[in-house]
Amino acid sequence: MPKTAKHSQADTSKADLENSALAILAQAPLLPADSEDSALTILLKQYLKPQDVTLVREAYRFAFAAHDGVVRKTGEPYITHPVSVACILADLHMDVPTILAALLHDVVEDTAITAQEIKDKFGAQVAELVDGVTKLDKIEFQSASQAQAENFRKMLLAMSQDVRVILVKLADRLHNMQTLTAMKPESRKRIAKETLEIYAPIANRLGLNLIYQELEDLSFKALYPMRYRVLTQVIKAARGNRKEVISKILESIQSKLKEAGIEAEVTGREKHLYSIYKKMAGKTNSFSQIYDIYGFRVVVKDLPTCYLTLGALHGLFKPIPGKFKDYIAIPKANGYQSLHTTLFGPFGTPIEVQIRSIDMHNVANAGVAAHWLYKSSDAELTALQQQTHQWLQRLLEIQSESVDSLEFLEHIKVDLFPDEVYVFTPKGKILALPRGSTAVDFAYAVHTDVGNSCVAVKINQELAPLRTELKNGDHVEIITAALSKPNAAWLNYVKTGKARSHIRHYLKTMQSEESTHIGERMLNQALRAMHVEPSAVKEKQWEKLIRDYSVKNKQDILTDIGLGKRQSVMVAHQLLAIDDKQPTDETVGVVSKLFGKLFGKANKKPLNTITIRGSEGMSVQFASCCRPIPGDPILGFINKDKGLIIHTHDCPAIRKFSLDPEKWLDVEWDSDSKRLFKVNLKLVAENKPGMLAMIAAIIAEAGSNIDNVSMEESDNSVYTGLNFTVQVRDRVHLAELMRALRKVPNVVRINRAKGNSTANGTQQVSQ
What we know:
Oligomer: single chain
Distance between the termini: 74 Å
Number of strands: 22
Number of helices: 31
C-alpha cells in the first residue's frame, strides 16, 4: 500500500493522531525546548538539518530570557506559549524563519526588545514576520472593534507580502484557543466569536484543514458550552452503535478495490462537531438525520487511479444521482482536490466517499503550507500557490479602496465564506464565486472596468437581470456600455467583497468630488463673511493647516467641510489665524452674529449665505419631511454622514436641533436653478370614474411629473383622498399647478402637504 501523508482529518484514526503534534506534545516534555527529548526538538529533527535545529534552540533561549518571570493566565511560564506555537508549525514542517518567528512573535510586543535587535540577531526576514504578527497595541483606537479591524488589516497586508505571517498567527490563535478556559467568560466569548468569524475561515481559505476544524470546534465549545457537551455525548454514544456497520462497509470497499488491483488506504471519516451543528441548525435537521451518513476516505497513489477507484465503487454500490462532485477537474478555491460521491450502502444507508491521491491528501490537510511541507514541482501545488497569490492580491485591491479598517474587515468577511459556484466565461474559462453571487459579482471578478460599466447580462445565451443569482455551470456574458456607471442599488445584492468595495469606492469618490465643490463654496462664503477674499489666502497658510489637521491635501479639508465633518467658519477662522494678522474683534463679531442670524435674531441677510443650485448631487440632500422647493425660505443642516440637508424654515425638524445651532447654515436658492423638485400635494375629490385620469392630465399639461400617487378611501363616502408627489421647478410653478387643479370639477380641496404622505394620510417628520 502506498504511504499516505502523515496527517488526516480530525478524529480519523489512531495512527494519524499518534504522529500528530498533539500526541507528541502529550508524550514529550514541552520545556526546556532545547533538550533532546523535548517535543519541539523531536518534531524539528524529523525534517531539519542539525545546524537549523541549533539556530532554533538559540532563538528559544533568546525568547526564554526575554519572557523570564512572566506567567500566563493559565499559571504556566509565558515561554510555553511561543514554544507551543512553534510545535504546531513544526508539525506542518514549516521552514526555519517561520519557526524562529513563532518563538519570537511576542518578544517585541510584550518586552523591551526592539524589532531592530531581532533583525540584527536573526535576520531581516524573521524581523518582518514578527512585525507582521505584532499587534498595534501602542496606538490608541476609538473602540475595540476599530482596534481589531486595524490589527487585522495590518496582518493581512503583511500576509500579502509573505503568507507565512498568517501561518504564525493561526498557530498562535490555535494555542490561545486551546488554553481559553483561563480567560474570563466574556473574554472567552469575544475571542471565540472573532476566531469563528475571521481566523477559522482564513485557515479554511488557505486549505489548513486540521487547524480550521480545530479552531471551529474550540470556538463552538466556548460560545455554546452546553450544546457542545450534549453533542459530544450523543456522538460518543452513536459511534459505539455504528462500529459494526462501519467495519462491514470498510471490508466491502477494501475487498472490491483489491479485486480491481487498486492499492489504497481506506479509513472511516467523521464530521467535526461544528460542521454537524451547522447542518443541524441550518437545515433544521435532527442529529440522527445528519449522523446517519457514513463517511469514508480512499487515498490512492496517483490521479488516474482516483477515477478507476470511482468506477470500482460505483460498481459495488449504486451512486445517488446528483450527489457526485469532481473537485479534481475543478478544484476548490483553497486548492482542495478530491472526488466526492454518495452511494446507496447496505441496509439502504447513504455512504459518502472521498477519493484522492497522496499529493491531494497532503494539500487537503496542509493547504498552502504544503509548499514547505512537501517540496514538489507538481502542478497541483503550483496552481495552489497561484490561487493563493491571486487571493492575496484581491485583498490588497479591496484594502486600497476601503475608507477605513472597519469597512475593509467587512469586505474581507464576505470573501472568507466561499461556498462556491463555478461558472464559465464566454471563452470557456472557469470562475469560482461565492454561492449567491450575481452577474454583477461576475463582472467585477472578470475585471474592475467590466464591473463599473456593465448594463446587462446574458446567462446561457438568454438576457437576464443583473441581480440574477448564478448557478453551477452557467455560461455568463456581460454586456457593457462606455457611459455606464456603478449603481448604489447593486450593493443590495452583490456578494463578493471585491464588487462591494469597488462600488462603494466609486460612490464615495463621486460624493467626494461633489462634496469638495460644495465645501469650497461654503469656505469661500465664510471667508467673505470675515471680509477676506478667498484668493488672498496664501499657500503657506494652507500648508500649515494641512499639517495641523494631519490630512494629505487641501482637497481633504474641503471635502470634510462639504460632508459636514468640519465647520466652514472654524476652518476659515483657523486659516486666518495662521497669518501674521490675528483676527480682529470685528471678525469675531461677524462669526458670533452668524448663528443668531440663522434663527431670526437679526434682520439683515448674513454675508456667508450658501447658494443652493439643486444640482449638487449626493452632497446636498433635500429633506423628505418638508420637501423644500425654490422660493421656500430654507436652512441647511450639516449631517456628518449625509452632507448638507436642506429644510424649510417652518419644518418641525428644526425644533429638534434648536439647541445645536452650530450645525445650521443659512442657505438660499440660486435664481438660475433648472432642475425639478419633489413636493407633496393632498387632494380631496368626488369618487367618480375617470377622476384620477383627469387630474393626471392636468398635472402633465402644467409641465409637471407625477413621482408617486396613493389613494385613501373611506367606507360609504363619496369623496376620495389623493396623495401626489409631483415635480415642480419652484413655488411659482407649484402655485400655477394648484390653480389649474382647483379648476377641475369635483375637486373640493387641495393643499401642499408637509411630511411623507402615506396611504392612511399620516405625515412623518424626517431629518
